[in-house]
Amino acid sequence: MAVAIHRPAWLLGTLFAVVLTATPAPAQSFAEIDATVRDGIKRGLYPGAVVVVGRSDSVLYARGYGHYTWNAASRVPDPDSTMWDIASITKVVATTSVAMRLVDRGRLDLDAPVRRYLPRFSGGPKNTVTVRMLLDHTSGLRSYVPFYVKARGSRTRAIDLLYAQPLVRTPGDSAEYSDLNAILLGLLLEKVSGLPLDQVARREVFRPLGLTRTMYKPPASLRSRIVPSGIWRGRPVPGDVNDQNAVALGGVAGHAGVFSTGMDLARYATAWLRAGAGPKDQWVSPGTMRKFLVKGPNSGSRLLGWDTPELDGEEPSIFGTLISDAAYGHTGFTGTELWIDPARDLYLVFLTNRAFDPRVRDSLKELKVVRTTLSDAAIRLVPHGCNQELVARC
Q1: What does the longest C-alpha to C-alpha distance in the chain come to?
Q2: Would 211 disulfide with which of 132, 175, 206, 313, CB 3.0-4.6 Å?
Q3: 3-class SS at 82?
């Protein structure tokens, strides 16, 4: 399925100034996107994918590629209806976004110690870890711990193991990407909201943004529309989350567990390009959104929840060589990617099931090359635009 430039009925109005163009993208730009994604399939990196490219007022391109599995008789992915295990993009679409909504309403203080909300997370240097440090990965927690091995299916035991983890760096001194930060933040959001994480994410994010096909723990009735991200005893397991720590936590966690579609993530990206404006009303205030798009003094490339391109010239960013320094995004272990570039008024959604039976040894490393090439092809689709509300210079 391919979609040319389409402008929906709802436009920006006076929400913020943005430079637009009605000039169609050149056909060769679409061809470059197609060739890049199909090359990944030919090389055995993933059996299927979808790409959605858009701006704050329009979807420029949307297409599905390959098949749900390596079986050519399986379904062809569709940008609107096919659901994917988005893995660590859960960290922004669910966890970060819920936190932002609660901050916007004054129910969550970014600079409060975590122990204010989760008293079990205390003692020694843990007393100085703030909510902000969980979001920008400067808490000092380890990058990864396989809780599921010792938890053996017990959510309570997995949580006990999380609280028992010591800090390995001084809080606030440096950033190290860690699933533990997002898992802990998910528990914190449950405490503040009084709801399980899947329910508060639906209330605060999925429902107000119209993400009708975005959810934790999709029901069995939807499995025919879910691309499998793993295999169990030789069979695809659509609808089962790939991340085993998320499995140990009951399928609902701050770091992984959300399933979504290409078009739902496009709707989500649009809200960020529109300075927090949802399809019906203001989802988050522009001021609060800006707070989440600021780097800390020691957070490296990390914003609050999001990552930014590392344009150091040593090697290309997975977000491309043409991306602006105002851009931000996130990737997922299963082969997913989302980036938003307000300086270009552009977003890219790229979803694959790389984790499903890849035919090459280091598929994640090779996928990085595909992501870089695809990102540049998406940026070449349209002339430069600028979202004045979120970017000081254009």
Answers
A1: 60
A2: 206
A3: coil
Among 345, 313, 348, 343, residue whose Cα is nearest residue 329: 348
- Name the one residue in this structure whose structure tokens are 């609050």: 304
Could you read off the pLDDT of 246-267 as tens digits, one per residue?
999 999 999 999 999 999 999 9
CA 40/CA 242 separation, integer angstroms: 21
d(CA 176, CA 299): 8
DSSP conformation class of 46:
-
Tell me the C-alpha distance between 218 and 331, whole Å.
21
Residue partners of 390: CB distance under 8 A and separation at least 6 = 16, 273, 275, 286, 289, 290, 293, 326, 342
What gap in Å lies between CA 205 and CA 211, rounded to an integer? 8
d(CA 137, CA 92): 13
Per-residue pLDDT tens over the stretch 5-51: 333 333 332 222 222 333 445 555 689 999 999 999 999 999 999 99
